[in-house]
Amino acid sequence: MFLKCKITVLMALVNFALIQQAMAEQPQISSYLVQGKNPSRMSQIAEKFEIVKTHKNAFEVLVPEPKRDEFLKLAPQSQILIQDTSLAIRQIFQQSQFFPLKNEGYHSFTQVTQMLNSVALANASIAHLVQYGMSAQGKPLLALRVSKHLRTDKKLPRVLLTAATHGDEIITTEILLNLMNQLLAKQAEPRFAHLLDQLEIVFIPVLNPDGFAEQNRYDNGEDPNRSYPYPENVNGAPTASINGLMNFIKEYPIAGSLDFHAFGRMIMYPWGYTRATVDAEREQIFAGVTEKMAATNSYVHGQIAKVIYIAKGSSADFYFWKYNSFSIAVEVGDSKAPRASSIEKYTADQSESTWLFLESFKS
To answer: Is pTM, for the whole model, over 0.85?
Structure first.
């Protein structure tokens, strides 16, 4: 046991050194407070930067260091709140790497990759691991396809479950890994056997590997969840990780998606780029399913633009717009990186909600 702990500590030190080295490749992101909530001004800033929180008469904006001067031209009187928004997340992640057993803390990108390969081998009859591209820094983009009918011609609704679009939201990866393992461990039980018989479920636990590897929110300085094309910007320039995913979905079209983010305790649906609603029939369907999901964990539910704020270039809008898919964004819990001991509770809060979401699809 002593030797195992020693090896684990050495691995943690290596991970720490790799993270420190890689940080030079990811621009630092700072948080700024902008006073006043003039809608026109907010919209102008939201076109180029990510608004992450609103207050009574102010709002918070994330700004990558290379774009600081551009931001200050738009908001010269803004106040800096946090110099390096990733620092606290990195510290929590690094501390968790010193646990002697790999499942007691947060997983590194290397560990996530190893787990996906192991799960695919152990469940070869129903699982297939796909590398659908490479990140800007050369990391593999990985998706685990799961269904009883992967190797048949039977056409099933394909549902995409994603996490870590923002690389600092590391709790989302742990939730999705745990849900994946729960589904496979219980595949003989009627409820889960039915899901595997009626759907193809695609797990992407780390959508943005470059950001995730350093616990940096963005994908090499760009916000991946503002880089999707949307109706008002049909030629949007996706980041490398999002471009890979868009190519994957061209090959494997989806009927729906569940995109885990952190934090805020919200379950939301399109539109995010505008406060205008989708058509009445689909609005009713979205509202009905998210209401059932929210009843399991007491989350707020509703349209993205009305529950939180205008978010242009998000996953839910793109999937709905391009594939008419039933796409939902979930902001889990109250932290991007809670203590490792809270991972089980965070997963439990999403379990029933996720199974209900999957059960809303009919083959």
So the answer is: yes
